[in-house]
Amino acid sequence: MNTLERINDELRDYAAAFDPSTYSGPDAAHLTEIGARGKRIYETIELLFAKRAVDTNGWRRDSHAASPEQWLANATGASEHTARETLRVADRLAELPATEDKLRSGDLSLVQAQHVTRAAALDPAAETRLLRVAERSGVRELREDSERVITAVSDEARLVAQARDERPLAGWTRGLATHGSFSGPTEDVAELFDAIEPRARHAFEAARAAGKHEPVAAYRFDALIALARGAEIPATGSRREPVARACVGLSRLLGQEPEPGEKMCEIPGVGPVPVAHAREVLAHGLFELVISDGVDVRTVVSTTRHIPKALRIALEHRDQGRCKVRCCDHTRAIQRHHTELFSESRRTAYEILGDACPDHHRLIHHKGHEVIDNGDGTWTLRAPPHTSAA
Asked: Rounded to the nearest 10 degrees, what angle do helices 25-55 and 110-120 cross at?
C-alpha cells in the first residue's frame, strides 16, 4: 500500500471516531491549527501529483474529461476555474523553489501561493518579500502586494489594453437572486461610478434622515437600475467630493523618470492605476493625493485628540482601512487607537496611532491587552497574565 493511501486510511478512521467535545477549548484551538496545516500539506500533495498526471497525460486513464482542468475539477470537487488556477501555480513552481518549500512544509496555502507565484513569475526578486507578507499578513494584503509587483514590472499600456480585451460582465441566478460581476479599464469603470454616485449619495442621505440604515452599496445598486431605466441623475453642485485617494511618486505624477523605489500610482482598496489616469482626473476633484516625497507626516503632531487632515490622510493611506493586528483582515467599523495613553502623553502623532477592528480594540481597552509593535507595520496583542483572550 502506498504511504499516502495508508495515511488516508488512518485519517479516515480518526475522523470517524474522534469526539471534539472531549477536548478543552485551548486544545481544540491548537488542533484546529494542526488540521489547517495538514490541509495545506494535502493541497500541496494534490497540486504536485496533479501536475505530474497532466505532464504525462496520466489524467486521461479511465477519465472521460475533455481537459486537464475538467479532470482535476471532477477529482477534487472544485470548479474548473479553481482547477485551472491550481495547475498554473504548479507550472510556476519550477522557477520558485522557496515557494515550493513553503508549500511542502504547510506554511503556505494554495490561495496564498496563487498570489505569490503570479507576481514572482514576473519578478523573481519579489518572491522573498511576498513570502514574508504571506507569513505575517492576511490574503487581502498579499493580493494587493502581488498586484503592485505585477504592475511595477508590466507595461502600463499593455495592462490597459489587456483590461479592455478581457472586459467581462457576467451574471448567474441562485433562487430569486441574480448575482453578477464585471471588470474593465479603470477609466471606464470610474465613468460608470461617476454616473451612479450622485443618485446613490442622495438616496443614502435621505434614508439616513428618515432613520433607515442600509449600506451605500445598496443605493448604488438602486442607482444603476434607475440609470438603466433612463432616470435623471439629481444635480449635486458644481464640485464633486473626492471619491478616492491616490498615492503617487511626485516624479511619476509630473511625467519624469521615477526615482528608484518610488511609489507607483495606487488607490487604496483598488490597487495600482495608470498614472495618466490620475493626471487626467486630478483637475476634477476626484482624488486626494498622497505624494510619496511630500511633507513628512511624522512632523504633524497635535496636542489634542483631534487628528489634523494631513495626518488623517497619511494614517488612512498607511493602514489602508484595516486592523493593524497581524493576520487580521477586518475592514468594517475600524476604530483609531492611541498606543500611548493620551491623558499622559497629551499628543496625537503618526507613530502612535493605528487602526483596530472592534474586537481587537475591545481586547486593548477592556481586557488589558498590550499592543506590541512588530516593526513591520503590524501589531501583536499580548494578553495580561492569568486571563483568556475572550
From this structure: 50
Residue 192 grid cell: 460608470
Owner of C-alpha cell 516593526: 375
CA atoms 67, 72, 77, 79: torsion sign: negative
Q: What is the pLDDT of residues 299-327, one digit of tens each?
A: 555 555 566 666 777 777 677 778 888 87
| Per-residue pLDDT reduced to its tens digit, 189-226 | 888 888 888 888 888 888 888 888 887 788 889 999 99
The predicted-structure confidence for 3-59, as pLDDT tens digits, reads as follows 999 999 999 999 999 999 999 999 999 999 999 999 999 999 999 999 999 999 999
Strand partners, 180: 171
What is the widest separation between alpha-carbon atoms in the chain? 76
The conformational region for residue 67 under phi > 0 = left, psi -120 to 50 = alpha, else beta, is beta
pLDDT value of position 242: 41
d(CA 77, CA 40): 17
Cell numbers describing residue 58: 496520466
Q: Which amino acid is at 323?
A: C
Task: With beta carbons less than 8 A apart as the criterion, state whether 245 and 290 touch.
Answer: yes
Alpha carbon of residue 260 to chain centroid: 26
Return the CA Rg of the chain. 25
62 Ramachandran zone, left/alpha/beta (phi>0; psi -120 to 50) = left
Q: Which residue has the cell 510619496?
A: 292
* 177-182 vs 244-248, strand pairing mode: unpaired
- Of 318, 360, 310, 352, the closest CA to residue 335 belongs to 360
